[in-house]
Write a structure and sequence with these properties.
The protein has one domain (2-99). The chain is 72% helix and 7% strand. It has helices at 2-6, 22-33, 38-44, 49-52, 56-99, and strands spanning 10-13, 18-20. α2 packs across α5 (56-99) and α3 packs across α5 (56-99). It is elongated, with a radius of gyration of 22 Å. The termini are far apart. The relative contact order is 0.10. This is HTH domain-containing protein.
């Protein structure tokens, strides 16, 4: 547990779980999307697979990818809604200026 607590990518460690930093989760997902394997990502970021378990990186990346993809889809949707609202306001202002 002491080794995990020293890792900058870890927020909190208990007997049952490891809480990872958000920045590490995002970085891991992006690296995985580029083709890097989960075990390699964890090893390169200071994790000992003998301590956390060889299956842990795959399990984490599976969860994190799902969350990341949901976030990205929501972000894109919100951006498109905001852009449409801004365009609507601009068109209304343009219409009012043309009528003046």
């Amino acid at each position: 547990m002491k080794q995990l607590e020293k890792n900058e990518n870890v927020l909190k460690v208990s007997e049952r779980s490891i809480s990872y930093c958000l920045d590490f989760k995002i970085k891991a997902v992006k690296e995985n999307q580029k083709g890097k394997g989960p075990n390699q990502i964890f090893l390169e970021n200071g994790f000992d697979l003998d301590i956390i378990g060889e299956k842990k990186p795959n399990q984490c990346l599976k969860r994190w990818r799902k969350t990341y993809e949901q976030f990205v889809v929501k972000k894109v949707f919100i951006q498109s809604v905001v852009e449409k609202e801004v365009q609507g306001v601009l068109l209304q202002n343009h219409y009012h200026l043309m009528r003046s």
